[in-house]
Structures are given as structure tokens and as C-alpha cells.
Amino acid sequence: MSAAYRKWLQKKLAKLQAIDCYSAGVTPEGLAEQLGVDPSKIVKLNFNENLFVDRAKQTALMKQLADEIDLRMYPEDEEAKLRDKLTSYIGVSAECLAISNAGDELIDRIIRLFIQKGDVAISFAPSFAIPRLCMKRQEGEYITVPLKGDFQLDVPAMLAKFSEKTRLLYLCSPNNPTSNQMKPRDIETLIKAFPGIVILDEAYGEFAEYSFVPRIQEFPNVVILRTFSKAFGLAMLRLGYAVANPELAK
């Protein structure tokens, strides 16, 4: 290993180590050990995992899947089949869909594609942490505006943060962790005024009163995120998708 390479690697690692990483936190078993209680006494709620879905039904489905596929082979037609099913489920064309390994990967992919060093992202607080971490890795700035007392958007305050450097707007609705859905007119106002890409995170869309998915063609700068982790109880599979105009989706 040359001295020049060692110097470059040390500098790179020091820079990477300064970036915050997402932490899943302590496991139920770890918490039980810390508290000195039986693990069965711990109720896990921090990830909003859907334990109302019938586990026996899911297990039977996975066994059926294992009989149908060959794990030695790379997937080929599976994504196309999923797109076809999703078109009827959410009512948009296949060209408006992008499949991913859960919503987190979509956030990371969008930020890597559209954010450069010095670019600015706007969001509100409190909300989902992943966009902030991804922005920091891209050497961008992440600005948040506090929610109002009723957990709704402070639209004037957010509009005041828009500038020539703002390239990403992240809106989680229904919001994690406050659980409420933002007023549609507020979201529409921000989308129409924003000079960049808007991520509208509808991970909890199946539990919501409305969705912007049917209106996606109205907003050429919007990417809507959906997931199978929450309503469908498939968090382990890491499966998500984005809905956007065909140009963005591609």
C-alpha cells in the first residue's frame, strides 16, 4: 500500500465516519436484558410493524413462493409482473412506477441522483430521519421547519425557506412520527411553489383519507413513495415503489 493511497484512504474514512448513520436502536431482547425482565414483557412499537397481519397466512405464502422460484437464478420477469399488478391496484400506468428495495432505498436513490454538494433540502420537524442522513452524505444542507401546534404544516414558514439552492422538498404524509396526514391544499401549495424535486412519502398511504397518486400527472416534479412494509406487513422483504411521471420514474 503506497503512502499516497494510505493518505487518501484515511482522509476518506475520516470524512465518512463523520456522517451520522441510521440506528435501529435496541432490540426487544436487548432491552429486556438491560431491564432484567422477560422478553415477552416487551412490546415493540418503534418501527410501526404491522402485527395484525396473519403470520400463518404469510408463512404459507412464502412456502408456496419457495416452491415456485429457483433461488439460484437472477430475477427477470418478477418486476414486470409486480408493475402489472400495481397498475390495477393504484390506478396508474406501469411507466409511472419504479420498483425498489423499500422506501429507504428510493429516498437514497433520489437524493444521489438529484442532489450535489451545496444543494439544500427543505422539510418539517419532527419527521422521518432517513432524508436528513442521505443529504448529509451528499454534502447537502437539510433545513427543517417546525410543525404547528396541531402538527400541520407551517406553509408560510416553509415557503420562506425556498431559494435558488433548494433542490429537494421532503413531505411525509401521513407523517412519521406524528401519525397525522397533512392538509391536501397545503401540500399542493408547496408542490406548485417548489423549484425542485418533491418527495411525497406515503408509506402509510393505505391508512390515510386521501392520496396524491391519482393526481400524479398534475405534478411533474413529484415522486410519491409507497411500501409493502406497513399495510401489507411485509417489512422483512424490503419492497417498495415510487409513483411519478414517466420521465422521472424512468
If you had to describe this structure to a student in words, what would you say it looks like?
By secondary structure, the chain is of the alpha/beta class. The protein has 9 helices and 7 strands. The protein has a single domain (75-249), classed as Type I PLP-dependent aspartate aminotransferase-like (Major domain) (Aspartate Aminotransferase, domain 2, 3-Layer(aba) Sandwich), CATH 3.40.640.10. 36% of the residues lie in helices and 16% in strands. The chain has a 7-stranded mixed sheet with strand order 1-7-6-5-4-2-3, with helices on both faces. Helix 6 links the parallel strand 2 (120-125) and strand 3. The longest helix is centred in the first third of the chain and has 15 residues, at 3-17. The radius of gyration is 20 Å and the shape is globular. The chain starts with a helix and ends with a helix.
Q: Could you give the distance between the termini?
A: 41 Å
**Helix and strand composition category:** alpha/beta
Low-confidence stretches: none
Q: What is the rounded Rg?
A: 20 Å
Please summarize the sheet with the most strands: 7 strands, mixed
Q: Output the strand order for the largest sheet.
A: 1-7-6-5-4-2-3
How many beta-strand segments? Answer: 7
Shape: globular
The share of residues in helices is 25-40%
Mean pLDDT: 93
CATH topology: Aspartate Aminotransferase, domain 2
CATH architecture: 3-Layer(aba) Sandwich
CATH superfamily: Type I PLP-dependent aspartate aminotransferase-like (Major domain)
Query: Strand content of the residues, in percent?
Result: 15-25%
Tally of individual domains: 1
- Quickly name the level 1 CATH class: Alpha Beta
The number of distinct helices, counting runs of at least 4 residues, comes to 9
